[in-house]
Design goal:
OB fold (Dihydrolipoamide Acetyltransferase, E2P), single chain, 2 domains, three-stranded antiparallel beta sheet
């Protein structure tokens, strides 16, 4: 019964668990990981295009100012240099960088296993915001076998603290980001005494 609750919660089946035990991904898991990667790439491309449009806006401001005031050199230089040169270089460079990274990045994940008693807590975690400001958000975090996972609060209804579990997960490129870990399958190894 508990095995089925774990399978339903984490959306895996016995074939997935068997493949993970032998260090392999199933085709279903590869497709799942690929969909997540495609979604991330799509949002990166949208962000890169947005930054390029912001860069073009600076050029439009500078050219519009020059067309309205062709003989006012103070206005031309005052708006032309910041909006016509600096603004497009900064935002255009950022846009190109984001686009290049998103279009050339390949999905690189490796299957890993964490095993041990679990501990689920609610913590304040720092999430990045605009301009290097950081916001703090309450998130549920599961600790097991030296690994940390971001989880939903209802997981405590399925997994008991101090029970020993084996957790198979895909580790993405960003080793420090909790969201870069995708739990693929879980097995109960032993109950706490």
């Amino acid at each position: 019964m508990e095995d089925q609750k774990l399978k339903d919660y984490f959306k895996f089946d016995e074939a997935d668990l068997q493949a993970n035990r032998s260090g392999q991904f199933t085709e279903k898991q590869k497709m799942r990981l690929g969909r997540g990667d495609q979604s991330h790439k799509m949002w990166s491309v949208i962000g890169g295009i947005f930054l390029l449009l912001v860069a073009a806006l600076g050029l439009f401001i500078a050219v519009g100012n020059w067309l309205q005031n062709p003989n006012n050199w103070g206005s031309i230089l005052g708006l032309g240099i910041p909006f016509g040169c600096i603004w497009p270089l900064i935002f255009g460079g950022l846009g190109v960088s984001v686009l290049m990274r998103s279009l050339t990045a390949k999905l690189r994940v490796q299957l890993q296993k964490a095993e041990g008693p679990i501990n689920i807590t609610m913590e304040q975690r720092r999430v990045s915001g605009e301009h290097d400001d950081y916001n703090y958000k309450n998130v549920h975090v599961m600790y097991v076998g030296g690994q940390t996972f971001r989880v939903q609060p209802d997981l405590t209804k399925i997994m008991a603290p101090d029970d020993v579990y084996g957790i198979y997960f895909a580790q993405g490129n960003d080793n420090d980001d909790l969201s870069a870990k995708d739990i693929l399958s879980v097995e109960l190894i032993s109950k706490a005494k």
